[in-house]
Design the sequence.
């Protein structure tokens, strides 16, 4: 199993996302969590998973120390792309509502990249899932935004929350990628790392 | 919102599945839970969602009393179809392992039906999701079956558990239908009931 395979590493999760912590815990991994401050700015010529790959690596490089011999740093980034526009985390509740209105009745992509890095090697990989939202009413959008915590989430929603229950007609891809961590690919990459 | 719309009903969930209870709670619904004993046998000429529609209705009709005027009974059934075979709940851990070996590396369908019934009307609806499993190793299958509780789950796995994290490459449809409750369709049907 993965936890035996990774015994030799001391794992560091460079993300304070409770969803990402949950996935590492579910894989029975021991790890510590640190906050990494990186300004999430990327060159304009990047598209799709080039953006999340860039930002996952940027966060990895913003780790505030040299990695020790046995340390393995995990960072990740998630964005939403809808009708050609890239949506990150909303800055306030009004922006959260307008993001949800923008995605209502449409398909959007959720793209998540993960960067694995030791002081010897680095691997970046990504995964994309299509999400089909129903037509959301203003009442539904307002209720969700005012009752839940959309501000720490790319695209202003959590698929594992109320709006994901009532609003998502179908997805194509991994549900966990939408939650911010493509855990099936993480498992595979870690087994081969 | 749905809880206001359904104020007039006294909801009864005819299922002891903790996943189904969770979805009704997440929709902020008040309900009571009862166990319904129905032998899950269906005519051989039924296929796909005809089977789950039949069994969801069978469970509804096995409710051990007349429904009172304001009562609304919710029952559901889930099956897995893989390579033309129907998989229900495994009877023991050996059957759970052989079901998972059977699905390993293949696509299967998870079909869930829900029956809504009052003493005046009844509605049955279903939803289907395709699930793509990676090639699971015997070590992975044995670890999952011996560590988790596959016996109360159609197809011997929970997608929200370890094996869903490491083993599911992608799905097409609703994640919640795979968990045993197509909550997006339930919400829509209840709003119109």
Sequence:
């Amino acid at each position: 199993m993965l936890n035996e395979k990774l015994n030799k590493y001391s794992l560091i999760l460079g993300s304070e996302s409770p969803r990402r912590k949950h996935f590492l815990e579910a894989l029975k991994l021991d790890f510590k969590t640190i906050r990494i401050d990186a300004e999430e700015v990327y060159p304009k010529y990047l598209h799709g998973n080039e953006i999340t790959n860039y930002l996952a690596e940027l966060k990895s490089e913003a780790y505030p120390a040299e990695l020790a011999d046995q340390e393995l740093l995990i960072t990740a980034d998630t964005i939403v792309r809808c009708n050609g526009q890239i949506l990150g985390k909303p800055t306030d509740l009004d922006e959260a509502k307008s993001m949800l209105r923008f995605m209502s009745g449409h398909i959007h992509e959720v793209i998540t990249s993960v960067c694995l890095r030791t002081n010897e090697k680095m691997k970046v990989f990504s995964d994309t899932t299509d999400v089909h939202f129903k037509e959301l009413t203003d009442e539904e959008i307002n209720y969700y935004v005012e009752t839940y915590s959309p501000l720490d989430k790319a695209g202003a929603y959590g698929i594992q929350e109320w709006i994901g229950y009532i609003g998502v007609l179908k997805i194509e891809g991994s549900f966990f990628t939408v939650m911010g961590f493509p855990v099936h690919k993480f498992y595979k990459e870690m087994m081969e790392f």
Remarks:
- Chain A touches chain B at residues 1-2, 23, 26-27, 129, 134, 139-140, 143, 159, 162, 165-176, 183-184, 187-188 (CB under 8 Å).
- Chain A has a mean pLDDT of 95.
